[in-house]
Design a protein that fits this description.
The protein is an alpha/beta fold and 477 residues long. The chain has 15 helices and 16 strands. The strands form 5 sheets. The chain has a 5-stranded antiparallel sheet with strand order 5-6-7-9-8. Strands 4-3-10-11 form a 4-stranded parallel sheet, sandwiched between helices. Strand 3, helix 1 and strand 4 form a beta-alpha-beta unit. Bound molecules: adenosine monophosphate (AMP) and zinc ion.
Length: 477
């Protein structure tokens, strides 16, 4: 049984779905006014791990992630750049999609843009108007937080300090806890908005941020969904407001499980441009790190923990990644050479079955990834111990098992394929394994001069050879 931490109850709960083996999943997506930073990417990698594990556990997942392509920041940016809003936001959306691909993040089933769903938002605001929980000032429409019971319970707000009605209303989408107040659903056009506005039944203007997610989540996934995700900073005001307005409109529960990832800090401080500790994926790759290493760095700390990112994190991640890749390379070589049938194949089967179970159990426990990875490292260690005793069939099964697990982890197969491509290029497509075989033959014939010459050639391709009692182990560094 899968258990996850639910921010709504502040407890770890068994994952109960609305429909058996089906998950309706909504993630708050990026505001496309700039390149995303690696903190944002942590939020999307967390969802990717969750989704891959749900698939692995035979759930049918429908995943929607919105694209916020209209708000104060996007409008300001497009005016400053003297570009139409759509061109300005599309540029950053394309960059975002490129990052997702490089990080091997599976795309959501749908990525609706806010600007293409204005009618849905207007319809929802009208519904709230009909229910008497809005008011209008100078063409802008506000949600009355006093119209809902329990406003702010999710964010543990002090009920005494909630500011209601005109004196407490706020136009901006993001605000501090102390300012909990009536929030804007529809913003009337002002000259600062330039030519960005929609003429609708509720006037000329544009939607607030919170209404966007309610409208698109309900449109594509239904009035009640299974899981909604985002970073902890979204608990208040964004998710608090999404829930208040959605539940008011439908009189139904908006979401059953709310999941939030912890923040990523850089060198112990909040990431920000002014502190010059703001990393994009491009900054990381320019420093020579593979995006898949960043994936591993971001994934290997439990999603709810604060991740204090430093560049030294790559060293630890690289050690883990190389354990997987070295295993695969050695398995490949042993498959070609394995002549013996392993006497007790049950050992391999047991090793795989036990590891699979432990891996699943760890992730079923609120995505305990560190535990899941440590079971895999134990498995690799055990296989390495007796690799040259396994039959080719069993070795193929081990390799398939690693790839099966990588359907969840998402960093092994892609890195391995890219590595093999690079290796083949370095050897001018001279098969590395035939070089290794030739060296073995030379050693068997005690032609050590030839064996050394071949060894040099192999080392020049970037592969280290460590001779063992019966054979040898290949390593990349
Ligand atoms: P935004 O584009 O600012 O709405 O953020 C997109 C996603 O990234 C949201 O789910 C945020 O909660 C999340 N996020 C923003 N900053 C960080 C950070 N430093 N660490 C982890 N997640 C973050
Ligand atoms: Zn949202």
């Amino acid at each position: 049984m899968i258990k996850i931490y639910n921010t709504l109850s502040k407890k770890i709960e068994p994952l109960k779905t609305i429909k058996e083996k089906e998950i309706k999943l909504y993630s708050c997506g990026p505001t496309v006014y700039n390149y995303v930073h690696i903190g944002n990417l942590r939020a999307y990698i967390f969802v990717d791990l969750l989704k891959r594990f749900l698939y692995y556990s035979n759930f049918n997942v429908t995943h929607v992630m919105n694209i916020t392509d209209v708000d104060d920041k996007t409008i300001m940016g497009s005016i400053k750049n003297n570009e139409p809003l759509n061109d300005y936001t599309n540029f950053y959306l394309t960059a975002f999609l490129r990052d997702l691909k490089l990080l091997n993040i599976q795309l959501p089933d749908l990525m609706p843009k806010a600007t293409e769903h204005i009618n849905d938002m207007v319809a929802l605001i009208k519904e709230l108007k009909n229910k008497g929980c809005t008011y209008e000032i100078n063409g802008s429409v506000y949600f009355k937080i006093s119209s809902t019971k329990n406003y702010g319970v999710l964010a543990q707000l002090d009920q005494q300090n909630l500011k209601e009605n005109a004196s407490g209303r706020l136009d901006n989408d993001e605000y501090a806890k102390e300012n909990a107040s009536d929030f804007v659903l529809w913003k009337a056009w002002t000259p600062n908005d330039g030519n960005v506005y929609w003429d609708t039944e509720i006037g000329r203007g544009r939607p607030g941020w919170h209404i966007e997610c309610s409208a698109m989540s309900m449109k594509y996934l239904g009035e009640t969904i299974d899981i909604h995700t985002g970073g902890v900073d979204l608990i208040f005001p964004h998710h608090t407001n999404e829930i208040a307005q959605s539940e008011k409109a439908t009189s139904k529960k908006f979401v059953n499980f709310l999941m939030h990832n912890g923040h990523l800090l850089v060198d112990g401080k909040k990431m920000s441009k002014s502190l010059n500790n703001f990393y994009t994926l491009e900054d990381i790759t320019k420093k020579g790190f593979d995006p898949l290493l960043l994936r591993l760095v971001l994934i290997k700390t439990h999603y709810r923990q604060i991740l204090n990112f430093t560049l030294t994190d790559f060293e630890e991640a690289k050690k883990i990644l190389l354990k997987f890749i070295n295993l695969l390379i050695n398995l490949d070589f042993t498959i070609r050479n394995s002549k013996k049938e392993y006497a007790n194949t049950d050992n391999v089967d047991n090793l795989i079955d036990e590891c699979r179970k432990k891996f699943k159990d760890a992730l079923s426990d609120d995505l305990n990834i560190s535990m899941a990875i440590s079971h895999m490292l134990y498995f690799i260690k055990e296989v390495n111990k007796s690799m040259d005793l396994f039959s080719a069939t069993k070795i193929k099964e081990i390799k398939e098992f690693i790839f099966e697990i990588d359907d969840v982890l998402g960093f092994v197969r892609k890195f391995y394929n890219a590595y093999m491509d690079r290796l083949n290029k370095k050897t001018n497509n001279l098969n590395i394994y035939s070089l290794l075989e030739k060296r073995e033959q030379a050693r068997a014939l005690k032609d050590y001069g030839e064996a050394d010459r071949l060894r040099e050639k192999i080392i020049n391709c970037g592969l280290l050879i460590e001779d063992t009692k019966n054979s040898y182990i290949l390593k990349i560094e």
